[in-house]
Amino acid sequence: MPVFWNGHKKLLFVHVPKTGGTYIEDLFRANGYRVYFWERGDLIDQMCCSPQHYHADILRTLFRLSAFDHVFMTVRHPLKRMISEYRMRQEKGEKRPFHDWAPATLLKAQDDPFYLDNHIRPQADFRMPGVDIHRQEDAFNADWAKRLNAQHGLGFQVMEVPRRRENPDFHRTFNPDDIPASVRKAIEAYYDADYRSFDYGLTP
């Protein structure tokens, strides 16, 4: 949940992991915004999760939401979000196939909702009344940045930033159609609130 501030505008970005938040953080930095409540240092080991991934219960305790000029969050289809998380874990050395990794990961997250730096927590847990919701499927690009800038007077000069490249080998070797029905059902059950809250169909 980084706070963006440029001396004039204060925005709270509720960063749901694996929903395109890194691109948005890069966009605000490119436009001269300072980023607060963002941590990648040694302190992370002593935290339940990094500040940039705080969910609604924590945010409501920390902040007066009315003090911000704008509060917004990003969301993504739950299955695509889980696949994106798996891709990242593979790049960090995960060897298990998705159909083994996903159920085991959901079980661990049931015991510890902060598991993997709050990456597995349902997106509905990040939602607060009055927060603007932006779906990754609507594309975070220059047109999106122009609309956000026009709506909220953000003073953007840069409307596009480089995207961090994904490993193309993953997309050549991973086929979502091969996910077993039992694993899909486990994901759908765990993220039931996300499907309902954000109007996602079961098929991405």
Give short descriptive properties of this protein.
204 residues, alpha/beta, Rossmann fold, 5-stranded mixed beta sheet, 9 helices
Strand order of the largest sheet: 3-1-2-4-5
Rg on CA atoms, Å: 17 Å
- Supply the number of structural domains: 1
Q: Largest beta sheet, briefly?
A: 5 strands, mixed
How far apart are the termini?
A: 26 Å
Record field, number of beta strands: 5
Structural class: alpha/beta
Query: And the CATH topology?
Result: Rossmann fold
Keywords: Transferase
Protein name: Sulfotransferase family protein
GO molecular function, one term: sulfotransferase activity
InterPro entries: P-loop_NTPase, Sulfotransferase
Q: Mind explaining what this structure looks like?
A:
There is one protein chain. It is globular and about 50 Å long. It has helices at 21-30, 56-62, 78-91, 98-111, 115-118, 142-152, 168-173, 181-190, 192-197, and strands at residues 3-5, 10-14, 34-36, 70-75, 132-135. Helix 4 (98-111) packs parallel to helix 8 (181-190). It contains 9 helices and 5 strands; from the N terminus they run ββαβαβαααβαααα. It has one domain: 3-Layer(aba) Sandwich (Rossmann fold), CATH 3.40.50. The protein has 204 residues and is α/β, with parallel strands linked by helices. The model has no long low-confidence stretch (mean pLDDT 92). A hairpin with a 4-residue loop joins strand 1 and strand 2. Strands 3-1-2-4-5 form a 5-stranded mixed sheet, covered by helices on one side. Helices cover 40% and strands 10% of the residues. This is Sulfotransferase family protein. Keywords: Transferase. InterPro entries: P-loop_NTPase, Sulfotransferase. It holds the Pfam family Sulfotransfer_2. GO terms for molecular function: sulfotransferase activity.
